[in-house]
Fold this sequence. Notes:
The structure holds 2 protein chains of 2 kinds. Chain A is an alpha/beta fold. Chain A has a 10-stranded mixed sheet with strand order 3-13-11-8-4-5-6-7-28-29. In chain A, helix 7 packs across helix 8 (287-302). The radius of gyration of chain A is 23 Å and the shape is globular. The mean pLDDT of chain A is 95. By secondary structure, chain B is an alpha+beta fold. Chain B has one domain: Ribosomal Protein S5, domain 2, CATH 3.30.230.10. Helices cover 34% and strands 24% of the residues of chain B. Chain B contains 2 helices and 4 strands. Chain B has helices at residues 41-59, 75-88; strands at 7-9, 17-22, 32-38, 64-70. A 4-stranded mixed sheet of chain B has the order 1-2-4-3, covered by helices on one side. The chains are: A alpha/beta, B alpha+beta. The A-B interface holds A 393-394, 423-425, 484-486, 488-491, 517 and B 14-15, 39-40, 42-47, 71-75.
Amino acid sequence: MRLNMLSAAGREIPDSIAGRKTVAPYRGPFASGPAGPRAPMPASCSRPGENKTLANLKEAIQAVGLKDGMTVSFHHHLRFGDRVTNMVLDTIREMGIRDLKFTVTGPHPVDDLFANYIEDGVITRMEHGFIVDELGPILTRGLLREPVTIRTHGGRPRAIEAGELSIDVAFIAAPCVDRFGNINGADGTSRCGSLGYAMADAQYARRVVAVTDSLSQAPLTRISIPGTQVDHIVCVDNIGDSSKIATGAIRSTKNPRDILIAQEIAAAVEASGLVRDGFSFQAGTGGVSLAVTQLVAGIMQREKVHGSFLLGGITGSTVSLLEQGFFDAIYDVQSFDLDAIASLGSNPRHVEISASYYANPHNKGCAVHGLDVVILSALEVDTKFNVNVLTGADGVMRAGPGGHPDTAAGAKLTIIGTPLLHGRIPAIVDDVITVVTPGETVDVVATEYGLAVNPARQDLLQSFKQARLPVVSIQELKARAEQMAGTPKRPEFTDEIIGVVEYRDGTVIDVVRQPVAWAGR
Amino acid sequence: MKIVRNGQAGTLESGDVMVIVSPRSPEAGAQLELEVHSIVEAQYGEEIRRVVRETLSELGVVDARVTIQDRGALDYCIRARVEAAAHRATAADGEK
């Protein structure tokens, strides 16, 4: 009989979950620290004249000794243009290796055939940062042997450094590699810019294989992942398509509703008093976020404010603010378009950072803890300000945390921008289906029907009222959404756990159960 | 209101609904045949059927085949589209 514990976000968490050594419920954004020293880094040696380059993936997989039951990791910097993940999995399948744990740092292409890796038993377990649309139904069918672990961008390097996620082989899609195995993402034919998410994998994986389509004859002068961490190099025809990086989450908007939300958010940022010299800022790549970024730059110009750093996923729009002198630096953990990739390669103020430096709460200082303002989105927010960015209204996983919980915990001001309705589905509800970002780290929810301020932030509420901003209560927003759309029927769930949502510190904030409609499919 | 031909209203745009109201063969007796496809079936399927039946009842439509392709329309939009489609499916003034 499993006993249920309660996470501080009010969610029932079983005291044992398949595949997890321990289950500690979430107790608060900064309630826990590291449990002990970091995991040992693997050590190996080389001899003069050794050649790291192998003929093909099969040779590399043999050389690293990949066996049934091991853990393989990949990064997502090439996003939907990535070809390495499928290339490697296909080779592994051909070689008859099975029962792998598969982990990717974020969204990657999943085609119609991907389910076969699971049905055929090649992949039996997963630890992921993001569940792309096509993967959600596969996982919801409950085909994995253990629930998928969902980690934030900061939580993943923390788990690797703590030895909770132990990687046997990291396959690194490497846009440019020299013969020593030094890697960067700024040169080569299939550039992805920052390699921030791959760095912890390269440091801690037992073996590291760089997969490249650009082997440089000259030694690299810009090194993101040093050859000291790379066992083997494999050259392939094409590691991916850089032009497909800027798809999916990234879009600019002409939608008047989104622009209205963006204007409200910008006014709220100004009223908070945080836009002053030394200002630091992160906004996502959605339409509202991009519009807010431009509006905030306008405020900085008008008030003659000089900012400190821009953080996070970087786009051409952020790059242009750096070039116009609004900020001193960009800290780039992920380059989201070709302009950002070019800037990372040429502008010394555009700095590549690791995911651990970006957002890991268990090191000596991460960048998100120095943020003034972050603008985020949501699938759902509840009247306790908890945010769901993982499960859709049908209970199926279709997105993921990314840096959402990390930046919300770190920033002085966290604003969630969302339309009141997604299609017909209310975005403001009594209880979100899955808590990913806890309400105590969220300050403001901005919709086209006004701004709701977390009651814990009476200071903000006063500032917003003084600035005559359209302030409403979160309950009013929820009532208004239901008045317009009607109350949606919520999915019912079985007891079967298909996903575990880790907070950034490694505690369990919520679990994803299988919707009744999916049982036995 | 007697349905004598196919009447259509609405679009397949997000937030809209396409409604087709058509006559049924007279032998089977007066009946409403409802076919609903919706992207929010799980959340609002019952509500959509209730609103469609209520709107048809208010119009006095008792014998028709009604096809709904819903893209997340709100109730007022569903009512308007059903009403327009039903009117387009009835005999115009002076027509026999």
